[in-house]
Amino acid sequence: MNTEQLQLVLQSAWTSLPTLLGALPVTLGFALGAMLLGLPLGFLVALARLSRLGWVRGLSSLYVSFIRGTPLLVQIFVIYYGLPSLGITLNPIAGGVIALTLNAAAYLSETIRAAILSIPRGQREAATSLGLNAGQTMRLIVLPQAARVALPSMSNTLIGLVKDTSLVSVITVVELLRSAQLVIARTFEPFGPYLAAALIYWAVSSLLEVVQRVLERRFSRGS
């Protein structure tokens, strides 16, 4: 690549930035939405995986195994393109959010389950001896400690979701990657817009990593 080509690439990346940054809220909205919806669902799945009922454990384990064992792109296709054959039609935003939420919930459930299991059983027994019921023990004793253990993995899940939102571009959602593709369709210069999109993903992920480290230090001081 000579100097002139490099200048063209940099100019293309710079001129595409306003359009790409305009699509960034969509990317962040998908990631945060899937995280906020995936957390309670993941918590319920984690509790199901810890249930004493065999059929509950079995169904929840099957769900986690299926989601973790299939590509997210295939899950998006099944939800957006497959469900209409069953009479369920979703718009691109709803289809993308549902797919990302179901995917995130499976991974979050394993994080939450492992965090709950990391709390010594003796603490639960001590809480019971003090007259706390199972719900109070979970809410007051187990979950505050489990949250500290789970924080790094949950933060990594959010960072992964930011990058995974690029996959909803295949169902015409105009997020960051799709916005870059639309710019390329107008300019016929792919390197600059794709480079700019990659730098934005990197910047957002790096910022989230900084926030993660701050939260981890704060939680560790509070422990």
Helix and strand topology:
Layout (H helix, E strand, L loop, with lengths): L2 H47 L4 H15 L3 H11 L9 H26 L3 H9 L4 H31 L11 H12 L3 H32 L1
Helix pairs in contact: 1-2, 1-4, 1-6, 1-7, 1-8, 2-4, 3-4, 4-6, 5-6, 6-8, 7-8
Keywords: Amino-acid transport, Cell membrane, Membrane, Transmembrane, Transmembrane helix, Transport
Main location: membrane
Protein name: L-cystine transport system permease protein YecS
Structure, explained:
The chain has 223 residues and is mostly helical. It has one domain: Orthogonal Bundle (MetI-like fold). The chain contains 8 helices and no strands. It has helices at residues 3-49, 54-68, 72-82, 92-117, 121-129, 134-164, 176-187, 191-222. Helix 1 (3-49) runs antiparallel to helix 2 (54-68), helix 4 (92-117) crosses helix 6 (134-164) and helix 6 packs antiparallel against helix 8 (191-222). The longest helix has 47 residues, at 3-49. The radius of gyration is 21 Å and the shape is flat. The chain starts with a helix and ends with a helix. The mean pLDDT is 92.
Q: Main traits of this protein?
A:
223 residues; mainly alpha; MetI-like fold; 0% strand
Q: Identify low-pLDDT runs.
A: none
How much helix is in the residues?
over 70%
Number of strands: 0
CATH class: Mainly Alpha
The domain tally reads: 1
What is the tally of helical segments? 8
Query: What distance lies between the first and last C-alpha atoms, to the nearest angstrom?
Result: 54 Å
- The dominant shape is flat
CATH superfamily heading = MetI-like
Helix-strand category = mainly alpha
Share in β-strands: under 5%
Sheet of most strands: none
CATH topology: MetI-like fold
Q: Please identify, by name, the CATH architecture.
A: Orthogonal Bundle
The overall pLDDT average reads 92
Structural Rg = 21 Å
Question: What is the ordering of alpha helices and beta strands?
Answer: HHHHHHHH
